[in-house]
Amino acid sequence: MPTIEIPPTAPVPIQTERPRWRDTFAALRIPNYRLYVIAQAVSNTSFWMQRIAIDWLVLELTGSLAAVGLTVAMQFLPVLLLGPWGGVLADRFSKRILLIITQSSAAVLVATLAALALTGAVELWHIYAISAALGLGAVVDQPARAVFVSEMVGTAMLRNAISLNASIFHLGGLLGPAVSGALIVVIGSGWSIAANALACLIVVASLLLMRTAELHPVTPAPREKGQIRQALAYVRRKPAIAWTLVLLASVSVFGMTLPTLLAAFADRVYGSGAAGYGLLSSIAAIGAFAGALGSTRVRVVRLRSTVTFAGLFGLAMVLASMAPVMAVFAMAILGVGLARLLFVICSDSLVQLSSNLAIRGRVMALFVMVLTGGQAIGGPVIGWISEELGPRVAMSIAGGVPLLTAVVVALVLARTRQWTLRFTLRRGSALVSIVRAGRAV
């Protein structure tokens, strides 16, 4: 089989000056991206409403935290098993057309689940089946969505757009759980789920209304054998991507099960019910939203950033597990949301900017496979630990593993790259920095 050559990756863009405040929302100056963001604002709020409603609906039907974790697994397992093939499709076909197909399919599936919930006919197997079907759509939707952002804004605005996407996603995470918690208490879970079916159609409409002449389409990859092996080999040759995926695996398997853990703390530890679950989810989203906005001010993305934020995220989770009362727990969860979002944005930016456009769909499929597929493993594991050993033990493990992974990766990089820590008390300098061969890195 002939070797498929991938052109060299352009250097990761570096800004010597911190971005101006007026450039915080620079990507919104692009009409297609602005239309996309408006639709995503509605879609992400509705997605979080649905996520909270489904988790609580499963808890009401079964009374089992393990069943809640299994629901998460059913939605993310297809990505874990089939993710690379979704990346191949994203590299071969129009990302816009793929998104229109996946979002239309999601609207039908979500509307079906909403109808079952509203009529009182819903059963646990309905939720599992529809969650798995939504997961199949996500196999293609997520890598196509990641690469489509660069087609809308181009390379120069990509980092800003990634940060804004995360801001919109977590703004939805701020509003959605609060609205969903109130709706569940007043009229049940069905209407929160139904809202997301409408939101999927709004996304489809935004894609149809875009000015296609203003997009920056990537040349489709030819149909050839060995494209997944090619992507794996490419990642192995890129340390920035490979180590980022190692860190991401530890965070996604253990730390991304936060909704299950928050449901456990609200129900079993603090007795605050659905309203408390929605409140805690919104607090986590506040921290994430702040982190997303702060990330637009970052001048350069480096591997050390992903290591640092993974460690801080794990530490915040461990501290939250020891909180004696809900008020203290909520403050710790604010830090969890902040650190997790900064880690995910740095990871996303570093992987995208370190990969060539010709193979970016497949590389991002691997990224998405680790990010969301890891939750298919972590969901039931953390749910079972919560059930058998208690929510506090589960959260301490969910934070302890990413923290330990970050420490190990830092030690390996320190040994192979001769990194050391430098502490500086001088005004205007970083308190702690990582240096190599006498200079900051």
UniProtKB/TrEMBL annotation:
InterPro entries registered for this protein in UniProt: MFS_dom (IPR020846), MFS_trans_sf (IPR036259), TM_effector (IPR010290)
The entry's keywords: Cell membrane, Membrane, Transmembrane, Transmembrane helix, Transport
Major facilitator superfamily (MFS) profile domain residues: 32-417
Record-linked PROSITE patterns: MFS (PS50850)
Pfam family, one: MFS_3
Ion transport keyword on record: no
Transmembrane segments: 65-85, 97-118, 124-141, 162-187, 193-210, 240-262, 274-294, 306-323, 329-351, 363-386, 392-414
Stated name of the protein: MFS transporter
